[in-house]
Amino acid sequence: MGEGTVPVSCYIRTLNEERTIAAVIAAVRSLVSEVVVVDSGSTDGTVAIAQSLGARVVHQPWLGSGRQKRFAEEQCRHDYLLDLDADEVVSPALAAELRSLFGDGMPRFPVYELKLVIVPPAGRPWWNVGGARRRKLYDRRVVRQPDHAAWDQFELPDGIAVGRLAGPLMHHAFRDIEHMMQKLNRVTSVRARETRLDRGRMEVAARVLLAYPVYFLKHYLQRGYFRLGVYGIAIAATLAYGRWLRDAKMYEQLLNRRTLPPAEENPKAELPGLSPGLNQP
């Protein structure tokens, strides 16, 4: 990191990410001016690998998804930031595009969307299946990550234009279905706790009873998992279950809230759904 790099700080949140962290850092260390790894207590080789590749490692116990990113923003030297998860690898095409973007000074837009392409445990990348666009490159003087335990995608202020980059960001999202289920279980617990329980119990109950087929079809048809054959059915079913699980956990919280004594009668009681979550990255 140094000569020939773009004036961008890349930050990465980590917790036991030795499976992918080397590839993530190696893809950007000669591209951006600095790589900042914010580690929340790894017990594997994550920290040693990051330091050996020239990343600056900052230790910070987990604050929540959005709050951990806000902390990471504050550790960076530059205002333009590249937000990478510890399983997202910048492709050569995207790296070239980023160099060109900063080639004549500061970019035109304060926020850029990147195209995520899922890299499965085996086989070719899913170029036309399950992909998404995320706002990963941004000027922190214009937008900041949310101060929230569960949500880590910022909302744009009115009137802010967003650019798009074509080069793919390769997302090594899961190592197998078991790993996918672990991630879904963790994330849905946090999001169920942090979601305002202002929906009626009957509405949430209706989702528990009826919504799973809708979730499945959304993944299978709209997001293109039908293109993957039998494995696509398995992945779409797993993802749909993860979305349904959030509804089920919210319904459970509503049931528990009905059985708890009122807060004024039990001031030490902590209502389900209002406690801070610890959704590890």
Mean pLDDT: 89
In the predicted model, the low-confidence regions spanning at least 5 consecutive residues are 263-281
Reading the helices and strands in chain order gives EHEHEHEEHEEEHHH
Straight-line distance between termini: 25 Å
Largest sheet: 8 strands, mixed
Number of helices: 7
Structural write-up:
- The C terminus is likely disordered.
- Helix 5 runs parallel beside helix 7 and helix 6 runs antiparallel to helix 7.
- Strand 2, helix 2 and strand 3 form a beta-alpha-beta unit.
- The two termini are 25 Å apart.
- This protein has 281 residues and is of the alpha/beta class.
What's the quick description here?
It contains 7 helices and 8 strands. It is an alpha/beta fold and 281 residues long.
What attributes does this structure have?
281 residues, alpha/beta, eight-stranded mixed beta sheet, 7 helices
Which secondary structure elements does this structure contain, and how are they paired or packed?
Layout: E1 6-14, H1 21-28, E2 32-39, H2 46-52, E3 56-59, H3 65-74, E4 80-84, E5 88-90, H4 92-101, E6 111-118, E7 132-139, E8 162-171, H5 177-194, H6 201-222, H7 229-259
Parallel strand pairs: 1-2, 1-4, 2-3, 6-8
Antiparallel strand pairs: 4-7, 5-8, 6-7
Helix pairs in contact: 5-7, 6-7
